[in-house]
Design goal:
The structure is a single chain. By secondary structure, this protein is an alpha/beta fold. The radius of gyration is 19 Å and the shape is globular. Helix 4 links the parallel strand 1 and strand 2.
Length: 277
């Protein structure tokens, strides 16, 4: 995916073995997304991290936004040598938080779960990105005509596969989803509440990176993580000139450098048995 390929490839070029798992329901279509739960996301990350733990002497885990929460939670189940927490989102309090989020708790409570896939939040500018060129690219990909065309192509492919009695293989989404079903927001809310109760169980060295101008979740989220985890080695780095999706925005090289330096410093400690298990 666009949002994660730059970071993964950049770290790989610096000698790291990088694995980027695809969460259940992601990179296919919204139909698949609304059928998955935060429990399945957590279980998948834990499973993949356990595999890495069995095959490497030192293991680090990182995630962006809700992925940062998954990384934190997984580190409490599988021993790791460090955690990268990128743009953590526990509270939607960024400068571009839509007004609809004020009624989100009420909607999640009143709308039955079986009907929540019928209600959506549609993402809008700046899409978590300050870089004008990339922001325009994402805006074009999220245009209603493009969304409708992609939906029609997917529907036609499913119908064709059914008529031919063959397996339907959806194409991977390269820019993420422009639409957030209420059902998915409910699952993210459950993830937030669950991970909030587990932060004190995080003991691995932790680096928290967040934009000062984060449009979705303010730096108070970074401080929230820092103050509640039990890690002996923890630090916050705030970034200028970027928004929420720091892995592809104008400070993406800085993000790579901070992670490389932090993980590299703690890699030696991991090899000597100071962290992990």
């Amino acid at each position: 995916m666009l949002f994660r390929s730059y970071l993964a490839k950049s770290l790989a070029r610096q000698g790291w073995d990088v694995y980027v798992p695809t969460l259940p329901g992601h990179c296919t279509c919204l139909r698949d997304l609304v059928r998955t739960s935060e429990h399945e996301w957590r279980a998948h990350v834990q499973q993949q991290l356990a595999y890495a733990r069995d095959h490497y002497e030192t293991v680090f885990v990182a995630g962006l936004s809700a992925g940062a929460l998954l990384a934190l939670e997984a580190s409490t189940v599988v021993p790791v040598d460090g955690v990268g927490v990128l743009s953590p989102t526990f509270t939607y309090d960024g400068w571009n938080t839509p007004w609809s989020h004020a009624i989100l708790p009420l909607a999640m409570k009143l709308v039955p779960l079986r009907l929540q896939h019928l209600l959506f939040h549609i993402d809008g500018p700046p899409y978590g990105i300050k870089d004008p060129v990339l922001q325009a690219r994402i805006g074009s990909a999220y245009h209603p005509k493009v969304i409708l065309r992609e939906w029609w192509k997917e529907r036609s492919a499913r119908i064709r596969a059914a008529s031919e009695k063959s397996a339907y293989v959806p194409s991977a989404a390269s820019n993420g989803y422009p639409i957030f079903p209420l059902r998915t927001l409910t699952e993210i809310d459950r993830l937030i509440r669950y991970v909030s109760t587990r932060l004190h169980c995080v003991h691995a060295p932790t680096l928290v990176l967040q934009a000062r101008e984060d449009d979705m979740s303010s730096p108070r989220n970074a401080q929230f993580v820092h103050d509640r985890i039990s890690s002996q080695h923890k630090e916050i780095r705030l970034l200028d000139d970027c928004y929420h999706v720091i892995t592809v925005d104008q400070q993406k090289q800085t993000v790579v450098r901070y992670l490389h330096d932090f993980f590299g410093a703690h890699r030696m400690a991991g090899l000597h048995g100071a962290y992990g298990g």
